[in-house]
Protein 1
Amino acid sequence: MEIELFEIKDHLSRHRPFSDLPPAILDGLVSHIEVAYFRAKSTILTLGQDNYYLYFIRSGAVEVSRSSGELYNRFGEGNCFGQFALMRSKRVRYPVIAIEDTLVYLIPNAQFQNLCEQVDDFADYMEESHGARLRQAVSKVREDGYNPLLASPVRKLIRREIVTSSPSASVQQAAEIMTRARVSSLLIMEEAPLVGSQGAIAGLITDRDLRARALSKGLSLSTPVRDIMSREVICCRSEAYAFEAMLTMMRHNLHHLPVLHQGKPIGVITAADIVQYESHGSVYLVSEIFKQTDVVGLKAISEKIKPSFVHMVNEDANSHMIGSALSFIGSSISQRLLHLGETKLGEPPIPYCYLSLGPMARQEQLMVTDQDNAFILDDQFIPQEHDAYFADLAAFVSDGLAACSYSYCDGEIMGTNPRWRQPLKAWQEMFNNWIDDPDPEALLHSSIFFDLEGIYGQLKLAETLKRLIREKAPQSRKFLAHIARNALMRNPPLGFFRHFVLEPNGEHIKTFNLKERGTAPISDLVRVHALACGSRSLNTLERLADVNETDLLPQGVGSDLNDALEFISMVRIRHQAKQIDTGIEPDNDVEPTRLSSFERRHLRNAFQIVDKSQSFLRYRYTASDGMRAIR
């Protein structure tokens, strides 16, 4: 071995993780190492560039920054940097400059990946250094590459105590309350039926309402606020993300948004609380959707979804943010199509509610998706008089969605299918039959209907069905056992010895489907637990939070599933973003050899979690009277 290589080996052997490498592996490594020198104040890595080396500092010091320019860390002799890019997309997220004259050893990506594959301790060390174990890798709030506030829960935006009044308060009294509290809105609460209890929200007034609805019209200052308040108050949940609140405010042209925690108001956020922060392109897409006057315009807008998706991925938005944004966009397109359809066909003959189903209802929609929708019609429905209108409306919406790249559902779970265009009483009968007298084959094709959300029309019709599900499902052991069995039909692609199980032939040979074999099994099994505990949530992560408040799962299992879902989702999301970047139509079929060692290692961990959770599901729910009690 040449003298220079002896010196490199000697120095590396003094520092972890190289000091822990077997001698033979270290000998093989040093022959591939390159040496580079950087003068003080020179740039080593720039934001967004591709990096193909692990940098080991032989002497000198460097400064590592976040993409925002904020200082992340300073490293000196014996430290490494650059591994984060190697373990992910090769794209630099942490720019590096030399703050002293610095000599570095460059370890090529091929040798880095081989070390991660061959030596678990080396991989663990590299992953830990950037908090990238499975749990750390799926942290919900990343601090690099995008505004962290957009990933903050809405409750963190609440700046002041909630200010309320009763409907009988006068305009003058309301103005006095708002002035004293220095707020621009006042939440109007119904009189509570019991002393010390809190009534429901009756309405909302703002300083604009006082000017436009009272003062400018010459109303008496003694006029009760019930006469000028907005009665249809749109709210958001405290656990929603700030960017979701922004979308809601833009969709409804709101300046004030009450925040609810467990159904009770805890504050009001204003547009001023969030508009100062940069938003994702999805926000602006939604505002443009509702300006379109025909399907051609919507189709043009839909072509911007892919760039918006890639933007969010490149900004390191997490899967919940991306799924929520794309679901919101899809819902908005559906809503606009329904409005355009009503304009074309005339006013609907009876009230109705349009349902989104599956991933869109769960706020988990990604780039590869089809249509899943249905209609609940008012019980006044008379087929001979009313069905032709709704058949035409369903066709208009479905064709419009197809034009906007939401493909038709192969299983015909769309409002164009008369079976899924029924009056409320027919839907109630179907759900009662599914729950009270479950048929395995029928349930196999109806699980998607237990993920339903009303997005247009008389939303109370959807809420009636959701309430029926919450009340009946936990009481039917037989139903839970059948739906649990169906949830076990999609298994993670992991065989003996933790080898990936790949498609043996066909179009997607040597791949596995990250939706069908990864995220969908988690959504399926979490749905069972959520139905068992009467959860009100639809999103899988939110359902897990509800389930974790019960004793349905062993301690720690819920957190593990949360992390597994996020990691699998992010690999799936990045896979689709890379395909879009290269002009390939996105799909869910991943070839393991194209993944980094980091991704392969943690996918195995995630799939093992899913496998164990499915085994527990099989144990937890049985059709016999001996099924474990659900508490």
Protein 2
Amino acid sequence: MTRITTRNYSLRDSEILRQSGIHPVLARLYAARGTRDTTELATELNAMIPPAGLLHIDKAAVFLADAIAQNKRMVIVADYDCDGATACAVGLRGLRMLGAQVDYIVPNRFEYGYGLTPEIVALTVKEKSPDIIVTVDNGIASIDGVAAANALGIDVVVTDHHLPADTLPQARVIVNPNQPDCGFPSKNLAGVGVMFYVLLALRAEMRRRGIFDTQNQPKLDTLLDLVALGTVADVVKLDANNRILVAQGIKRMRAGRMHAGIAALFRAAGREARSASPFDLGFALGPRLNAAGRLADMALGIECLTTDDEGRAWDIAQQLDAINRDRREIEAEMQDTALALLDDFKPQDSCTITVFDEGWHQGVIGIVASRLKDKFYRPTITFAPGGDGLIKGSGRSIPGFHLRDALDLVSKHAPTLIQKFGGHAMAAGLTIREQDLPAFQAAFEAVGKSWLQQHQLERVVETDGPLEDAYYTTDFISLLDSQVWGQGFAPPIFCDDFKLISQRILKDRHLKLLLERNGQRYDAIWFGHTDTLADTVKVAFRLDANEYNGVTRVQLMVEHVE
């Protein structure tokens, strides 16, 4: 069941924004997203929240500055998704700019699992002989791994953004906006954002020591294309602070001042960097990087982001593109299997979905969970074989159901059921015994039934209401495209009644429509739908500029039809 609603907004806030010189439609859109004044719309770097607000960041800066002065060997232990890869690249490039002797290791997810485990510590010692381990986008749950490093005399600096458990690892320093007692106003930094902040604090500490001054210090803003990519791809909330990071990164991409690997990924994806958008980062570049971690080795993705050789970057980007095509094929097969397994699934009787197939690929279950969640609008966990009688799950959730907290509750009620788990509100991972799957399904569904009410299980397409006739233009689309929209700051969706002039099916899968409103006709497309529509329809849509034969025209991208 899907219904269309219109966002409420404060007329007063909209008027304040409009009087500040904001376009009248943008003023309404911003007000509907909770923006009250133009300070929340600033995109300049000097509007960023200062690093000092992050708990222990000054301690981390002092420790790392001392380590650089003593020429200690650092190794970054990275995660294997796009946020982890970009955080690793930012850490490597930034620390080297600041004079550090630093290398990295990214564990194979299928051999070593997630986070800094004792096994990864042993591998890091064997291959890299570090004095210091720096985690990026992981580590907050790595109690045993940090203990193993400590036992070998290796200091650990944890930089992470995931939610902590009740016990924290005994690291030398932890920088994580979500750790207890951290008063940082934005809890939504991605792992790459946390690493960028650590570098800012470290540079400031080195300025205090007289190593740099403001004239000759390394330019860390050159890393912002990487920060933007990781932030958007990790689907963290684009609050005011994250929008600054993303806006600055996109500005660099549009100006052609990006790293070789980012430029190569744009080219491999067939996208134009000069018109880069958060959509490109989330749906074109991010998946190509993520594919390496899902099917192969994220070291390939990290090399793409850390090489300055344009030829090498292009070669890797093509490899990543090929891996991503393989990922799509595997995903399509797994999705077909999942839908067959759910043939008898009755959404009205269930609040959650849990599925397992012994032929599934660990690296792709998260995407399949996301697709099933989108189709059935239920918190979904998909499992694949993990070896030794274990199965590994990846979950995706819906608003109002905090997935990590749900797993925590299952774990508290049945302490032996989940071997390990971690994650966020909307995405999480876990490991259980295959024989315990029925018990886990029942326990997870029980949490769903106790937490979710019927109205939360209906998909809601939130719109910004009607759009005035004067703004169905390519100029207005350009204005919208120049803003930073994304998770938690939703791209505009408009809604209105149209007369249906014609409809036809494209490629057996999509609806091509001609719609009319107030005497004006508009081309529209509804992907993934072949329904026969009524003569008059209520349409929720995004505006798109469609270029064909050198002519650019307004096209409506349909989100839903009532």
Protein 3
Amino acid sequence: MTDETAERDVMDYDVVVVGAGPAGLSAAIRLKQLAAAANRELSVCLVEKGSEVGAHILSGAIFDTRALDELIPDWKDKGAPVKTAVVRDDVYLFRSAESAIKLPNFIVPKTMHNHGNYIISLGRLVRWLGEQAEALGVEIYPGFAAQEFIVDGNGTGVVRGIVTGDMGVAKDGTHKDSYAPGMELRGKYTLFAEGCRGHLGKQLLKRYALDEDCDVQHYGIGLKELWEVPEGQSIPGLVVHGAGWPLNDANPGGSFCYHAGDNQIAVGLIVDLSYSNPYLSPFDEFQRFKHHPVIAQYLKGGKRIAYGARALCKGGFNSLPKMSFPGGLLIGCDAGTLNFSKIKGNHPAMKSGILAAETVAEALFAGDEGGCDLTVYAKKFKASWLYDELYRSRNFGAAMHKYGSIFGNALNYMDQNWFNGRAPWTLHDRTPDYKKLKLAAESEQISYPKPDGKLSFDKLSSVFLSSTNHEEDQPVHLHLADPNIPIQKNLPMYDEPAQRYCPAGVYEVVGEGDARRFQINAQNCVHCKTCDIKDPAQNITWVPPEGSGGPNYAAM
């Protein structure tokens, strides 16, 4: 949080970038590359709320190098951590806790074929990109959360940069001895690359009505674990995707199991946040999923070494907002550029950052003093391969929502394999995910098995593996618009689903009868943003805690 009366240091740059993910780092790198090529000076500052670049990065991840090839053509010679090529795709329809059907490749939508792609740790890749950016002269400030954006006070609505959060504020709002006001980082242009459901991106969408002409955004929550397994048990380069059990058409999602090198396997479950049963717990669905024989065969005897969770944007092309506004651009997953038909968001994010950098550099090199609405970005976007890729995948998510996993996949197979993504129809889903939740009285309660400590685990031990930490004496960063709603409304109507949709045990209903209260264990928060998305009353707003707080993912 920030104190409006505080005196702040002010630093001026040509471009301020918010977020050191693939979009923000690609934009920063490309800006410096263009400046060097034109023999011009561009000052670029990048702020990152994690304790270091990569600390808050979590992705599957199967990586398409298309954007990296453009950004850093000699990435192999420079030692990019992109090593394990995909050797095989296995796609399963999980029928029950014991059975599954392996689908022949010829009936799998071609967007899910991964020949030529790599299994990577995105955390390692963005750390490497951070090194490339710093070598080019980008100023990177990890541990500083962008808390607010600066808007001209003259009525023009121009964004002029950001304010980082104050440090050393106690829970009651008073200043501790360690208090330090945040800085104003001012830029001619500001690029927002916060990732899915960005705190500032959400405000920008509303302030500038950027999403008034598109479908609502849709989301999933991705839960991931990294395992170290016995020698010879993994098959480096094997990609396993699945649909069906433990989820279903009313509560949809999919799974992944990626075999990296060094006897490591990344396993995860993506639960669509359009799910309808308020008793569903994405975390517990993931834990029981790992007991399926198809997955257990790869994990048995292994050791779980990391855990994390993160929301992802899956609305795709139909949910893309206007990305420009006076003084800045939304890029990457802040704008929702993930291609859900490929289950890939990293190369689209990088390309959107590259396009943003080229747009801003051209404007500044032409004498622009900043503050314009760079609508030319939309033209560049539309002329790019990224637009074409997302357009061809526009029906994928909506087909699954409308027709379920079997008929939806059949429709997607026709769309992608027969029409090459140019089917003569466009499907829409305009209902927000939080509105899909049914009342508890209309829903079946779910009994989850107890974790066995070998394949399945509890939330608190999982959060421990995420290395999550927050300064305890600080204001709670999960804001309730009305503190009465959880107990008075959500509990009788939905059995307060926050107890279950949070993958880190942040929310609890404690006490009995009239003494029941809603408890927020903010220290556990892994910054997944699920609560901000799924709360049926839209009563919870996630804001950044004190800088460097949150998970510290080493290689996720």
